[in-house]
């Protein structure tokens, strides 16, 4: 009985390990509002599954609930990874309904959107602390990368010991400065891209397969 029990337990451990290794990695796409997170999520999803994840907009906080695309298989340079993409709401320290009024919204709609955006920030933080296996951190390379939000989020990611790639987005714009991002967070690799135009996506996919595979 002891031999059979040991054999059964050994087989069970091997099977459990095989199944756990085959489960998709949950990769959260994080960053401040309007950095291009959903544009990137949609680019990845379309390239590898043919489907988008959610609507894109120039208005802040278009994504107010986390959206998930499961079983996205990415392969580059002989490396392969299967991930669940979690497109999270933009994280900020304050959501003011008045910023939506600048986009020709009625006050009631602006107040509702700001409330939903605030709830979305809380949801994004929950995902980060509980439910992701790695992080793609998206920054707008036309803006100063050193901010309270970015410092806080990257600090939390590091405290969770999560693998993280920083993507300097919007390199199609003249004001882009990816080197500024790399200098701000030298402890992490920074990859430049334009999610909107699809620039440098080969390297993006190679790094995702390398880091999260």
Automatic annotation (TrEMBL):
SUPFAM superfamilies documented for this protein: P-loop containing nucleoside triphosphate hydrolases
Domain G: 26-170
Top-level taxon of the source organism: Archaea
InterPro entries in the record: GTP-bd, P-loop_NTPase, Small_GTP-bd
Xref: Pfam families: MMR_HSR1
Signal sequence, start to end: none
TM ranges: none
Protein name in the entry: Era-like GTP-binding protein
Organism of provenance: Haloferax chudinovii
